[in-house]
Amino acid sequence: MKYRLLALTGILLAMSNVIAENSAPTAIAIHGGAGTIKRSSFAAGQEAAIRASLEAAVKAGYEVLRTGGTSLDAVTVTIKMLEDTPHFNAGKGAVFNAEGKNELDASIMDGATRNAGAVASVHTVKNPIELARLVMTKSPHVMLIGDGAEEFGRNHGIEFVDPSYYHTEYRWQQLQKAKAEHDRSEAGTERWYSTVGAVALDQDGNLAAATSTGGTTNKRWGRVGDSPIIGAGTYADNRSCAVSATGTGEYFIRSVVAYDICARMYYRGISLGDAATEVIMDELPQMGGDGGVISMDIDGNIAMVFNTAGMYRASVDVNGTVSVAIYGDESN
Amino acid sequence: MKYRLLALTGILLAMSNVIAENSAPTAIAIHGGAGTIKRSSFAAGQEAAIRASLEAAVKAGYEVLRTGGTSLDAVTVTIKMLEDTPHFNAGKGAVFNAEGKNELDASIMDGATRNAGAVASVHTVKNPIELARLVMTKSPHVMLIGDGAEEFGRNHGIEFVDPSYYHTEYRWQQLQKAKAEHDRSEAGTERWYSTVGAVALDQDGNLAAATSTGGTTNKRWGRVGDSPIIGAGTYADNRSCAVSATGTGEYFIRSVVAYDICARMYYRGISLGDAATEVIMDELPQMGGDGGVISMDIDGNIAMVFNTAGMYRASVDVNGTVSVAIYGDESN
After folding, report:
1. Does A250 contact B141 at a Cβ distance shorter than 8 Å?
2. What CATH number does the domain located at B24-327 have?
């Protein structure tokens, strides 16, 4: 009798899983940057705080999906939370450029319509991801930069902050260290790319992707990396996948990383995991590029692939399983 | 005897053609923008002047290739000439933004190394393509924007001009007309996208691509189109092809047009012509995008494809045949 009950329960569970997957699978994956993240890197409590921030953000995004919200809303809510914490190089925690200022970039893309919005080099926008989304929905354009992008935001009720909002002692010390290293050796700073990103699938079967960053510490000359470049740092297309990238942005632009993963799936019929692995573990290192991606296909399969020691990452998969990880030797 | 001599000459010519193609085929193709170009659009002599400019520029680029120069040098020389004429929306002939200023964008890519350089929203650089090339060769970055990009250029001996250099009466009147139309209907301006671009194959078998633009008349908010976006407006990879695009930039960014043509060739094994035709005649119009591309594969095959009434274009193919065309009903 006991075995019969177990068998029946098993069948019912299997059926309910199938029904749930067929009706409306939803999933979300996020990153907080890839790089040379070592267990010895953290002050006491810092690692736990970062894990808690990742978990809160991914759960907030998943709640949007679970209650019938769109993937665009899920990635926006999640990125906003990551921008508002000081732990990641985006929004509040943005790094300083060589002039001691913060230059923020963000982009978002809708897999259903392939609409997209991006901003680069904004200085006083509290949540660059919200401005990128307004560019997508309220302008005929995809990319706005600098003062012009901020002027557009002012016309649409975006929240602005004083530049001092972005001042965190941690990032300020990073800049001083980078300047000292640059003066000594031109070698640049520690390779740690804590851009943030999110990809999601909603109950209507639509994918979305979004990315936000403060760029690189001590950057000069109005440098723009891959985060605000549609195709490089962010891409979403219901026909293939949604991708958000983090790493040495120049290589990601030259390899068109986010779109290339989608193109390999779409044109060659390979799986998301294989496509992401080829690009991040093979194509990028051949050029000299470091970093990773989070990516999701139309069935909600998740691939989080990086060629660095670690990548801050978290996900809620189609079964509702929550995962938070940092190091390469942790399972996703 | 006369016939024998002719026959012998024919055989020798045929042999010399074959030898030239096998040893070191070179070719170049350029565009001066696509759009609703009608025969009735031109003032007397204007069409002839534009054709002469296209022919001079493509021949100058081909001369670089013929004498053993690199494809990067060929596209740079060609784009510089197109930037220096007032006929095209790049450099000297750049359109005005809503504030009556000129914002110039350019990008360049090396198919051998997939190195790339791009600048966006520069205001006083005489030849943006030269600055983009310096970003590629003299900085660790791919994309620099605004004042920062100009500061980088000053450190590397770039030629600057007074903003009045870009003042052409033709473009100024275009802005006044666009503003009047915008005030009336929000419908915007005539669809005429005279960005310039070039692709080339050199004797070493290396491809290169480059694009330069003044953006769109009456543009606001620091809008950036596809021209300075690697993957969208410009791409080059010896494994597949070199592409320069022109058109409604937002759609070209969302479709990652330049890279997508290369990806379709590389991943599906189809010809350059088929790949370019699929993207420009099928994919883009489905989204609502207008424009075209010039493109070249590693054998020097040229595909110049546009879904608009015309595209300013010229080429010298692997046989040395020169072609200049404007309208859709002209053969390339």
Report:
1. yes
2. 3.60.20.30
pLDDT at res. B14: 43
Check the CA dihedral B177-B178-B180-B184 and report its sign: positive
Q: Is B139 on the interface with A (CB under 8 A)?
A: yes
Closest residue, chain A, to B187 (C-alpha) = A140
Answer whether B41's CB lies under 8 Å from B33's CB.
no
pLDDT tens profile A306-328: 999 999 999 999 999 999 999 99
Q: How confident is the model at residue A41 (pLDDT cuts 50, 70, 90)?
A: confident
Query: Does the complex come out with an ipTM higher than 0.95?
Result: no
Give residue-wise pLDDT tens across range A58-93: 999 999 999 999 999 999 999 999 999 999 999 998
Work out the average pLDDT over B7-15.
43
What residue ranges in B5-115 does DSSP mark as E strands? 27-35, 104-110
The answer to whether the Cβ–Cβ distance between B221 and A268 falls below 8 Å is no
> How would you class A283 by CB atoms within 10 Å of its CB: exposed for 0-12, middle for 13-18, buried for 19 or more?
middle
In this prediction, residue A23 has a pLDDT band, given cuts at 50, 70 and 90, of low
Alpha-helical regions (H) of A85-231? 128-138, 146-154, 169-185
A17-33 mean pLDDT: 74
DSSP string, B255-308: TTHHHHHHHHHHHH---HHHHHHHIIIIIHHHHT--EEEEEEETT--EEEEESS
User: Of B145, B256, B263, which is closest to A121 when you measure between CB atoms?
Assistant: B145
Q: What is the distance between the alpha carbons of residues A144 and B232, in angstroms, rounded to a whole number?
A: 16
Would you say A90 and A196 are in contact if contact means Cβ atoms under 8 Å apart?
yes
The token duo for A331 is: 């399972």
Taking each helix axis as running N to C, give the angle between helix A128-138 and helix A71-84, from 0 to 180 degrees, rounded to the nearest 10: 150
Task: Give the contacts of A48 (CB within 8 A, at least 6 positions apart).
Answer: none
Domain residue ranges in chain B: 24-327
Question: A2 has which bridge partners?
Answer: none
AA identity, residue A42? F
